């Protein structure tokens, strides 16, 4: 294996700080999407909201993420990673504070739509920057940690929301929504001074600036001459889809969709689903909390496995065994409480592999010039399926029943396993140039170079 000063650099304090600051985006995503669930109780009472209005408020952030991820991806490839790395968080701070003064439901929906756009934009910006600086040995775990941070943000949101709700303040819901500005301020201050990606600078012909960054990060003996030559990928969206990268985009979008459609449905409607499975009272609330924790546990376990077992086996097995768990729930909806909770626990833990690969594969399979665009587009397209699936879950439970609903979720998940078997490449141990180059990425059957854990 060829040693490269960038891809094989030792892990430094700079890399660790960048990983933490970059994961601020998914933390805020989990916080913002979860805090609205706690705040909605008080908002609905004060504004006498209909079910449709509540749905629009909850969905507005997801819709914003859909557009923001694509726009952010395009902008980060055009204008660079460094500037947008802080601008998007400043927007989150401003719109979060503005929610405190929202006079009616229309303004609240608009503000949450704008927040969603800023959150969505941060994903391709932050992941591109982290990918292009991180040594290959740590790239998979660092990118996978993005998903884990989403669940950390969600857990913090529930704690903050409950504490504020217990104050009895009529404006508690306003404080809840505005509270997202606090972690956003901390993150944006921490991000100040982050250098631009030397790979992106070189792609724009700014070699002197790239040299300066590389000497600062990797040492005085490293320069742009140490950057591997990437193939020319200066293409638009239509050209991207028509080129060989179109197949990769299709794979990423499909496996991402197959992964999050059942997961979003289970996560969003866990109490309702558990109730339909004959759980009641405290068992529903405890079960919902346990499932949330286990989603995080599953992501953490997957972080330790992504380099040990490889990307492709992790994705396939994650889809396979989580799909089987959902299928058993569908075939045996009247099983005992302990069996139901055990199957849900298996699903929540095992699906973690597909969750972390949502950020590993898109960043490894596309070159620098279109990496942000590709990540943003895949994130946006997958949200469409997730939104539709989440919207249909309550109707499916009412019209089809819990058993058939779980079987549909199982079918979608197992379809992801089949797709991954035929299309998932193995990129473990590769440099970014190797994994992103058309014609050189390994076929599914090829073994990747071993990497130490």
Automatic annotation (TrEMBL):
Superkingdom of this protein's organism: Bacteria
Pfam families associated with the record: Sugar_tr
Topological type in the membrane: Multi-pass membrane protein
One cellular-component annotation, GO: plasma membrane
InterPro entries cross-referenced by the UniProt entry: MFS_dom (IPR020846), MFS_sugar_transport-like (IPR005828), MFS_trans_sf (IPR036259), Sugar_transporter_CS (IPR005829)
SUPFAM superfamilies per record: MFS general substrate transporter (SSF103473)
Domain Major facilitator superfamily (MFS) profile: 18-428
Keywords: Membrane, Transmembrane, Transmembrane helix, Transport
MF terms (GO), sorted A to Z: transmembrane transporter activity
Compartmental location: Cell membrane
Transmembrane segments: 20-43, 49-71, 83-101, 107-130, 142-160, 172-190, 249-269, 289-307, 314-332, 338-361, 373-393, 399-422
Protein name: Putative major facilitator superfamily transporter
């Amino acid at each position: 294996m060829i040693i490269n000063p960038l891809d094989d650099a030792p892990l430094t304090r700079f890399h660790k700080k960048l990983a933490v600051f970059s994961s601020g985006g998914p933390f805020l995503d989990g916080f913002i999407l979860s805090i609205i669930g706690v705040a909605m109780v008080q908002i609905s009472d004060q504004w006498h909201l209909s079910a449709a209005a509540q749905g629009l408020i909850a969905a507005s952030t997801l819709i914003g993420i859909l557009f923001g991820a694509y726009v952010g991806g395009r902008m980060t490839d055009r204008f660079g990673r460094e500037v947008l790395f802080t601008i998007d968080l400043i927007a989150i701070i401003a719109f979060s504070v503005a929610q405190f003064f929202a006079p009616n439901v229309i303004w609240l929906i608009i503000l949450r739509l704008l927040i969603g756009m800023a959150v969505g934009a941060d994903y391709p910006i932050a992941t591109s920057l982290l990918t292009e600086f991180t040594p290959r040995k740590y790239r998979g775990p660092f990118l996978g940690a993005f998903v884990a941070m989403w669940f950390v943000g969600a857990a913090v949101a529930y704690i903050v929301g409950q504490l504020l709700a217990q104050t009895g303040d009529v404006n508690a819901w306003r404080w809840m929504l505005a509270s997202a500005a606090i972690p956003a301020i901390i993150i944006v201050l921490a991000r100040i001074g982050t250098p631009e990606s030397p790979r992106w600078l070189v792609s724009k012909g700014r070699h002197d600036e790239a040299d300066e960054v590389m000497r600062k990060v990797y040492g005085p003996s490293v320069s742009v001459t140490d950057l591997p030559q990437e193939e020319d990928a200066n293409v638009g969206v239509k050209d991207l889809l028509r080129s060989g990268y179109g197949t990769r985009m299709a794979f990423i979008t499909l496996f991402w969709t197959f992964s999050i459609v059942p997961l979003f449905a289970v996560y969003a409607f866990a109490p309702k689903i558990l109730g339909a499975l004959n759980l009641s009272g405290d068992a529903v609330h405890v079960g919902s909390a346990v499932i949330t924790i286990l989603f995080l546990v599953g992501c953490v376990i997957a972080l330790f496995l992504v380099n040990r077992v490889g990307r492709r086996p992790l994705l396939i097995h994650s889809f396979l065994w989580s799909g089987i768990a959902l299928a058993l729930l569908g075939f045996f909806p009247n099983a005992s409480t302990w069996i139901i909770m055990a199957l849900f626990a298996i699903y929540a833990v095992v699906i973690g592999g597909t969750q972390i690969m949502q950020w590993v594969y898109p960043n490894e399979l596309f070159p620098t010039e279109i990496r942000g665009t590709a990540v943003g587009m895949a994130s946006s397209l997958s949200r469409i399926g997730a939104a539709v699936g989440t919207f249909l879950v309550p109707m499916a439970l009412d019209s089809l029943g819990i058993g058939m609903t779980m079987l549909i979720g199982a079918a979608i998940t197992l379809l992801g396993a089949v797709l991954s078997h035929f299309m998932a490449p193995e990129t473990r141990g590769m440099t970014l140039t190797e994994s992103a180059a058309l014609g050189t990425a390994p076929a599914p059957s090829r073994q990747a170079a071993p990497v130490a854990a």
